Amino acid sequence: MTETRLNNRQWLAKFMAALVPGALLSFGAMAVVGTLCHTTGDIRTVSAQFLMWMAVLVWLALLGSCFLFRSGARAWAVLGGAALLVWGVFGVLTKVIMA
């Protein structure tokens, strides 16, 4: 097995991948959890506060760990694919719940 070292190349692409698709991923996770918990849109409820703080913590975790990807393209592919997957799950959940 070859051993690869982490490097600082493509740091801007990795950071932008955590910034843009990472935000979409964290907001999608918030939407999925909110749909599963039947959260209302009232910002004063405990569940809405939990969802807002959860999205922030997920996004910060992605911003901190985005530099562990081997390349910027891989970061964009993984985070973008995960965001598409989460929003697809949200779309299916809303169709199932509305039916």
TrEMBL record:
The chain crosses the membrane at residues 12-36, 48-69, 76-98. Keywords: Membrane, Transmembrane, Transmembrane helix. This is Iron uptake protein.
